Amino acid sequence: MKTTTLIYALALGLVTSTSSYAAAQSVDSCIAALQKQKTGEFIKLEKLNVAGKPFYEFEIKDSKGVEWEFMCDAKSGKITEMESEVSSVNDEAFKKNAKVTEKEAIDIALKAHPGTAQEIEYEIEENGDASYELDIVNDKGVETKVEVNAANGKIIEVSKEAWEIGEEADEKR
């Protein structure tokens, strides 16, 4: 609970100091919408730009220890995406649909967005599809998240990180 309170307080302080009261309201709306879908401990909050639009990505850990990511539209306060994380490519939910190797996914992401792959997560989309989510840092220090479909190698989503509060529970890479 302390982590939840700290992340929430930091997020509101950061949002209200760098933008407007309306932005703080959208964080409130995002948290309220998220809590209707899943309860758990807040792990991390990121402000992302996806195709020029602002989003918040919340990461929480539920009572069973499963990590979940929620994308929330920063303007409307509505949840737009929910994914669960698994610990490895060998997780049954991941490998049943995966035809692209981790190395292939990294190569695909780096070809489109040159830099260094700092982290990789293995995710299960709402529809059951498996995907790799890579954090790539370029030579200017800008972090880009690139999500690669594990079945066909297509890039699903690309976002630029504006800021991050909290840490990954178990860093990979």
Q: Could you give the topology of this structure?
A:
Blueprint (H helix, E strand, L loop, with lengths): L1 H17 L2 H17 L3 E10 L2 E9 L5 E7 L5 E8 L5 H4 L6 H11 L3 E9 L5 E8 L5 E7 L5 E12 L7
Antiparallel strand pairs: 1-2, 1-8, 2-3, 3-4, 4-5, 5-6, 6-7, 7-8
Care to describe what's here?
This protein has 173 residues and is of the alpha+beta class. It has two domains: 1-84, Nuclear Transport Factor 2, Chain: A; 87-162, Nuclear Transport Factor 2, Chain: A (Roll), CATH 3.10.450. 28% of the residues lie in helices and 40% in strands. The chain contains four helices and eight strands. Strands 1-2-3-4-5-6-7-8 form an eight-stranded antiparallel barrel.
What's this model, at a glance?
This protein has 173 residues and is α+β, with helices and mostly antiparallel strands. It has 4 helices and 8 strands, in the order ααββββααββββ.
List keywords for this structure.
173 residues; alpha+beta; Nuclear Transport Factor 2, Chain: A; 2 domains; 4 helices; 28% helix; 40% strand; globular; disordered C terminus
The helix/strand series, from N terminus to C terminus, equals: HHEEEEHHEEEE
Proportion of strand residues: 35-45%
Predict the CATH topology of the largest domain.
Nuclear Transport Factor 2, Chain: A
Query: Which outline best applies?
Result: globular
Please summarize the sheet with the most strands. Answer: 8 strands, antiparallel, barrel
Q: Please, how many domains?
A: 2
Overall pLDDT level = 87
Low-confidence stretches: 1-18, 169-173
Q: Helical content, roughly?
A: 25-40%
